[in-house]
Amino acid sequence: MTTVRTIKAKQRPGDRVFSASTTIAGCIILAALAAVAVFLLAESVPAVVSGPDELRDGADTFWAYVAPLAFGTLWAALIALVIAFPISIGIALFISHYAPRRIAQGLGYIVDLLAAVPSVVFGLWGIKVLAPLVTPFYQELTTNLGWIPLFSPPASGTGRTVLTVGIVLAVMIIPIITAISREIFLQTPVLHEEAALALGATRWEMISMAVIPFARPGIISAAMLGLGRALGETMVVAMVLSPAVVISFVLTGSSNPATIAGNIALNFPDAYGVQVNALIASGLVLFVITLVINSVARIVVNRRKAFSGAN
Amino acid sequence: MNIKRSGGIAAIALVGAIALASCAANEGGGTEAPSDLSGTLVGAGSSAVGAAQETWIAEFQTANPEVTITYDPAGSGAGRETFLAGGSDFAGTDRAFKDEELAAGGFASCAADSGIVQLPLYISPIAVIFNVEGVDTLNLDADTIAGIFAGTITNWTDEAITSQNEGVELPDLAITPVHRSDDSGTTENFTDYLAQAAPEVWTYEADGVWPISSGEAAQGTSGVVDAVTNGTGTIGYADASRAGGLGTVAVLIGEDYVPYSAEAAAAVVDASPFVEGRPEFDLSLELDRTPDSEAYPIVLVAYLVGCETYLDAAQAELVKAYFTYMASPEGQAAASEGAGSAPISDALFERVTAAIEVIG
C-alpha cells in the first residue's frame, strides 16, 4: 500500500469479499476487547466507590479487598513459573538437541498431549493425588527448615497450599513453554551450530554459545505466555487452594493468599449487589495485570531481538 | 452405546407409563383423577435447596404432566433479587426476607397490596465431621467446637476435648480445621451456631463467608469432605447427608450430648420461635441454637417464598399446588431421600398448611 503504482489490477469479486471479511474479522477482535473493557469498567465503579460495610472479608475499601488477591495471583503464578521454566527448557533442549530423533518425536507428542488435558482434571489430580502425597513432605520441611520464612510452621494438614497449586500450575504451563522453546531451538541456524562445533566447542558449549543466545527472545515470550496462563487459571486454584485473606509468602501453611480468578469462581455463585461489582472489579485488576505483563514481555522481546541474530 | 440403550429403555418405560396412566384415566372411576393443572412455574434461589428441588420437581411433574417447573440454583441472594424483580414465581433462600426488605415491598409478581409467605420447608442438619483414626464419635460443647475452629484449641489431646471424652483414645496430633472457601449458606448457619452458642469464644457475626483467616479452606461440600477425608487430624462441617464414613460430633445441649439426626434437627426448628411482628403467614424463624430440649442445633433452614396474592390467578393455583406438595409428608419424605434433609414436624406442617391456604 505504501508503494505508489499507476497500474492497478482489476479487483475481482473474490478480492473484495476476502478483503472485506478479513477487515471485519480484524474489527471484531477489537470490538470484543473494547466491549469487555467497557463492561469491566462500568461494572467496577460501584465497587471502587463503595463504603466499608458493603464489601466482604472485612475490607474497608476496594483496594484493601483486592490487594491480597492480586498478591496471591502473582505469587502462585510466579511459583509455577519458577518450577516450570527450567524443566521446560530442559525438555525442549533434550528434544531439539540431545534425544535420538525417534524418541524426540514421541516425547514431543506426549508434551503436546499434556496441553490438551482440561484444567478441571488437573484440579482433581491436585486434590486427590498430589495434596495427600506432599503433606508429609511439607511437615518435614516445616520441622527441619521452619527457620526459613517460606516454610514457617505450622504445616498444612491437608496439603492444599499455594506450593501445591504452584506445582499443578507448573505441570499445566510446561507444555506451553516447552512447545514454543522447542520450535525456536530448532530454528537456530545450522551454520552457527556447525561453526561452534568446528571451533572445537562441546555440545553444551555450542548450545550455550549458539542456541541460547539465538533463542533468548523466544524463550522469554514462551515464559510470559506460560505466566499468562498461570495468572488466569481458575479451576485448579478454586479446587485445590485453601485460601484466606492474607498476604503471606509461606509455602506450606494453611492460610494461603487467594487468587483473583479463583476468588471470583468461588464467590460469584452466591454474591449479589455490590459484592458482584467487587468481583468484576477484581477481574478488571487481573485484566490490567495480564496486560502489563504481556506488554513488558513484548518490550523485552523487541529490545533483545536486535542482538540475537534472529533476523 | 450404553447410554443409548438405557435411554431407549427409559423412553420405552416413559411411553409405557404414559400409556398406562392414560388408560387408567380413560377407564375413570379412580379417585386419583389426573390433575388438570397446567402451566410453567419458575423458581430461583439457594443452591442448598437445589437437590431437594430436583427431587420435588421430578415427582410433581410426574403427577402433573402438564406442569413445567424450573428451579435455577443461582444462590440465595440472586434468588431473592429475582423474586423481588418479578423474574420468578417463587424463591428458595437460606434466610427469610428481613423486616426492612418487607417494608420496602415492591414484589413484582404479587398483587399490589399482597404480602408474602415464607415457609421453612427445607431443614438440613449440618454435621461436624472429623478424621481421627479409630474415633467414630466425639462429645463436644459449643465452646470447644468454637475454640477448634477459631484456632485456639490446636491439639486433639487438649484438656477441653479429653475431659468431655473419657475412655476415647485421642492421638497427640495437631487439629486441622477445614472450612468452606466459597460463600455458602452452610457456613452462614454454622457460624450463626458458633456465634449464638459460644459468644465468648466466637466473637464474629454469622456470615456466608468464613470470617477468619486461620484454618484450611476447601471448595464446596465435596471439597470439605474430601479435605477432611484425605487430611490428618482434620475437622470440618458439611451437610449431614454427605458425612459418609467420617467421625461426627455429638453436640452438648443442656446436660446431654446430641448426635445429629433428622428428628433432632426438626426438633430445634420446633423449639425456635417465629420472628416477632411478622404477618400471620410469614413463618420466618428466629433459630434458637441453644435449645433446652434435646435437639440438634446446627441446622440449615431454607425458606420457600411466594406471594399471598399473585397478579395471575392461574400462577397462584400452580404455586399453591406445588407448595402443598413440598410441605406434604410425601414431599418431605422425597426430599429426605433425595437430598438428605430432615422432614418438618407435624406441628410445623399444620402452620405451613394454614399459610399455603391463603395463597391465591
TrEMBL record, chain A:
Subcellular location as annotated: Cell membrane
Annotated ABC transmembrane type-1 domain residues: 70-297
Keywords: Cell membrane, Membrane, Phosphate transport, Transmembrane, Transmembrane helix, Transport
GO cellular component, one term: plasma membrane
Biological-process GO terms, alphabetical: phosphate ion transport
Topology of this chain in the membrane: Multi-pass membrane protein
GO molecular function, a single term: phosphate transmembrane transporter activity
TM ranges: 20-42, 62-95, 107-127, 161-180, 234-254, 274-297
Job of this protein: Part of the binding-protein-dependent transport system for phosphate; probably responsible for the translocation of the substrate across the membrane.
NCBIfam families: phosphate_pstC
Family to which this protein belongs: Belongs to the binding-protein-dependent transport system permease family. CysTW subfamily.
Name of this chain's protein: Phosphate transport system permease protein
TrEMBL record, chain B:
GO molecular function: phosphate ion binding
Binding residues for phosphate: 46-48, 76, 94, 184-186
PANTHER family: PHOSPHATE-BINDING PROTEIN PSTS
PROSITE patterns associated with the record: PROKAR_LIPOPROTEIN
Entry's Gene Ontology BP terms: phosphate ion transmembrane transport
Cleavable signal peptide: 1-24
Gene Ontology cellular component list: ATP-binding cassette (ABC) transporter complex
Family under the similarity heading: Belongs to the PstS family.
Domain named PBP: residues: 32-330
Superkingdom classification of source: Bacteria
Species per Swiss-Prot/TrEMBL record: Pseudolysinimonas yzui
Protein name as it appears in the record: Phosphate-binding protein
Keywords for the protein's UniProt record, in alphabetical order: Phosphate transport, Signal, Transport
InterPro entries: ABC_phos-bd_PstS, PBP_domain, Phosphate-bind_PstS
